[in-house]
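Ex. 9. Protein: DUF1772-domain-containing protein.
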Amino acid sequence: MAMQTILLPPRKPTTLPDDANPGPGTAITHLTHQWLNLYDRGKKIFPVIAGISSAAYGYLAWALWNREPHRACWHMTAGLVAVSIVPYTVVFMQSVNNKLNEHATRDDAAMAEGREAMKMSEQELARREREDMEVPGLLRKWSCLNLLRGAMPLAGAFLGVYATVFV
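Predicted structure tokens for DUF1772-domain-containing protein:
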């Protein structure tokens, strides 16, 4: 949901034609910095949450194994589904994450050296413009992939509730 808000275009001035696409309402470099902040927070919090819930399901499966093995299997599956966000991120999201991270941090070395206004060649400027044009699409792709990723712990929770209430 955050990406849809971040990518909102500015309010269309009445002077723009109807078919004009004004693009995002903020600078592309700022978009990738916002994404990087969101990503850094998420990668610290959500794997831990998924790991804790997966461990809880694992404990429950272990505790039920001798008495109710069929229910234990459901809880084990719930735990595996919940923690599957980690391999999913590595397999399906890593390339998009890397591209966005490279864009967000591409000027960090120059900034650290105090070269904020360094001169760039025409080729470098053209390359940067191409990279900037890719960013909104990458953010939309990341948003879709992240939505699927976020559904995994939810699916694990549903499996856990099903195992507890209905099995």
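Check your answer against this statement. The chain has a mean pLDDT of 86.
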